[in-house]
Amino acid sequence: MYRDLRQHYWWSGMRRDIADYVSRCLSCQQVKAERLRPGGKLQRLPIPEWKWERINMDFVVGLSRTSRGLDSIWVIVDRLTNSAHFIHVHTSYSAERLELIYIREVGRLHGVPVSIISGRGPQFTSSFWRTFQDELGTRIDLSTAFHPQTDGQSDRTIQVLEDILRACVMDFGGQWDQYLPLAEFAYNKSYYSSIQMALFEDLFGRRCRSPVDESHVIQYDAVDLDDSLRYIEEPVALLVRCVRRLRSRAIHVVKVHWRHRPAEEATWETEHKIRA
């Protein structure tokens, strides 16, 4: 959250304030699971050479049925950039129907991948799906049974998607399928510390423009700082000039109206200080 907000806002102690807000957020504490690094040796898969060349896919099932009869989400993740597509489907969809959706949502936008890592659902183990991918020249790798780390990338993405859905379920009103494109947009626009940028920027080579970029950003004036990084306040006008006596000594003072401050906050300063 801090990485996303600091692109548009800044205030002193911003990171601390955001961390404190998140720690007190009831929705965040209820829906977001704690992630720990798994023990044991790492089992690295081949590193993709290009975007959407090697992908992972799996299903989020058990969702409430919408008015259109949809009850699951097909999650497809690019292994190189972590960008993803969230596609609303039904658990009864056949491999033939998933083929058409796959061509429309993945093939049309990214071309044909080299390999796919998927779960062992009946849609992915069917002979039709295997034959279809063989004709495209795509290799199918099924995840190892009872070893979720094989497809850990899509599992991690599914966890994030489930967090988004749980946090916004009251706003969706049961029609989560209508808001799924917004969830996909929010996920792909989020900042990833591992690549030091948002997934959208990693995929397309530029920052994603969002509604907050214009309507919630105000113009700001340049602030002058001295060598010790303190604000340099510039006087606008001298409101009052008078002489004050300190013991037997006369001191010339002026009431100064400072730039970026209202007249009510004018202060008395020595004339010598202002001239300096």
UniProtKB/TrEMBL annotation:
The record's PROSITE patterns line, in alphabetical order, gives:
INTEGRASE
What does the entry give for GO biological process?
DNA integration
The highest taxon in the source lineage is Eukaryota
Known InterPro entries for this protein? Answer: Integrase_cat-core, Integrase_H2C2, RNaseH-like_sf, RNaseH_sf
Annotated transmembrane regions? none
May I ask which residue range the UniProt record assigns to the signal sequence?
Answer: none
Task: Give residue ranges for domain Integrase catalytic.
Answer: 44-208
Q: Which Pfam families match?
A: Integrase_H2C2
One molecular function GO term is:
nucleic acid binding
* Gene3D superfamilies according to UniProt: 1.10.340.70, Ribonuclease H-like superfamily/Ribonuclease H
PANTHER family referenced in this protein's UniProt entry, alphabetically: CHROMO DOMAIN-CONTAINING PROTEIN-RELATED, YALI0A06105P
Q: What is this protein called?
A: Integrase catalytic domain-containing protein
| Naturally occurring in which organism (per UniProt) | Solanum verrucosum
